[in-house]
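Dear support,

I submitted the protein below through the web form. The confirmation email said the job was done, but the results page showed an empty box. After a refresh the structure appeared. I'm attaching both so you can tell me whether what I see now is the final result or a partial one.
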Amino acid sequence: MLLMFYLLIGLNCGKRKPPLPPVERVTQTVSVSGIQKGNRIILNWTMPARNASQNSVLNIDRIDIYRLAEPSSSTLSLTEEEFISRSTLLASKDVSRDDFNLKQLSFSDELKFAGQPVRLIYGLRLVNSSGQKASFSNFVVIEPTAKVSLPPSDVGSQISEENVLLNWRVPEKNIDGTVPANISGFNVYRKTLGAGEFQLLNKTPLSQPSFSDNTFTFGENYVYLVRTVSTGIEAEPVESLDSNEIEVSPKDIFPPAPPKAITIAAAPNNLSIFFATNIEKDLAGYKVFRSTERNLPKSEWENLTPEILTTNTFQDKRVVSGQTYFYYLTAIDKTGNESDPSEIVSEVAP
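What the results page shows now:
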């Protein structure tokens, strides 16, 4: 959005019509905002609260959307009568009872003014089933720019234990076909598949065509998209339309590292095993394996911890004096992924 502010109209309104019967009056108005996104102006508004006249709410039949296009050099002084006489009815959207329960409604106006210094003024008004119109909403003024980059393309992902790494192709042109693309950065959005709205992940526009999302959760299903950020007429950021959406379902198939720094302390009837604690956030615990033969296949070693060990120490009290015992350990995460075997250590029971 290059220039956006609310234009308050009504200081010089025309003559008022005679009062209408209360049941037919349309007293509600909507509050509207708007931004430029690529080659579109996106209008968003909320419907009036239902604690107003219930009859009036039920009688609302549609919402009319108006637009006035004028040179950007024109004065901003404009009466409501002038707006009505000079504006164009863009669309009439039917209003259902359910619309009053929605957080936000929207309308997309495709730009036809590329390359021209134009100012667009939008206003909305409710119309009841008798055709009577409410007062206009607040008026939104936008001076769009044609030098907005096309959206990124070919968004892809790579999943690791630490992050979901996104990459995309940088656009080469603006929406009006000019080059080079007006790019000041990129914004990455994510939502949970089938629920919620897209949320911005980066705090400031990204300078490179990649992003590492380390706030994901294994087992969740996500949808990502990316928008180019361009610099507007007054240095305000203007986003492109959406890139292709990509669904990502991170699954934890990444085992922990094998336990390290294993030592054994020998005492009568007891061999105490100590080792460094793993640093993985999803670590569940450890397994300790024993054998009296170093070269025995590891699948045949005895598991001393049928219940996962949750500390970094273990005492083997089932030892025979003079016997050499060999040990190795594995680490287990909460998903059940098991590490490779650690190094083998040994000790003679005293």
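Response: this is the final, complete result; the empty box was a page-load delay. The first strand starts at residue 4 and ends at 7.
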